[in-house]
Design goal:
Layout (H helix, E strand, L loop, with lengths): L1 H34 L3 H15 L2 H21 L6 H31 L6 H8 L1 H32 L1
InterPro entries: Anthrone_oxy
Pfam families: Anthrone_oxy (PF08592)
Protein name: DUF1772 domain-containing protein
């Protein structure tokens, strides 16, 4: 297990940074940009973006990768100085995953299922754009904090190695 300590911690930090960047991109560019569009454009664009982001690269090197590698880093750091930082990062990211699965994914699925774009205003209203954006902002804050914890865990790891 010793040989996995550094790679799992580096991998957790790397994937957490990637997923944090994705959430932040939605918060700072995608949703503000879509907010200014008409209803039909909003619905069609969001559907396209959401279909595109569900791909092996994002899932492996972002969303699920951050969870699996942070869990692995937690297990490999048991009894070591970086453990508290890695464990906090894992706890924060578990909250992000729960928010994603409980709030954002159901909203994404509902808008993707909509097919009658002639009723785009109603589809957009049912999407609850403000709710999606607010919970995404929570994901940004929590995943950024988790990323910071993992960065500090690398510092602690380096000092104790």
């Amino acid at each position: 297990m010793d040989f996995l300590r550094a790679p799992s911690l580096v991998g957790a930090t790397f994937t957490m940074g990637l997923v944090t960047g994705a959430f932040a991109l939605y918060a700072h560019a995608i949703m503000p940009g879509l907010k200014t569009t008409d209803d039909r454009t909003f619905v069609a664009a969001f559907q396209s973006i959401d279909r595109a982001i569900i791909n092996p690269w994002f899932m492996l090197f972002g969303f699920l990768g951050a969870l699996v590698l942070t869990l692995a880093a937690t297990l490999t750091q048991l009894g070591r100085d970086p453990l508290p930082w890695v464990a906090v990062a894992l706890g924060l990211y578990v909250i992000v995953v729960v928010i994603t699965l409980a709030v954002n994914v159901p909203l994404n699925d509902a808008i993707k299922a909509a097919t009658d774009l002639d009723d785009a205003a109603a589809i957009r209203e049912r999407f609850h754009e403000a709710r999606w954006a607010a919970f995404n902002l929570v994901r940004v804050v929590l995943s950024t904090a988790a990323f910071g914890c993992l960065l500090w865990a690398l510092v602690v790891y380096g000092r104790s190695a």
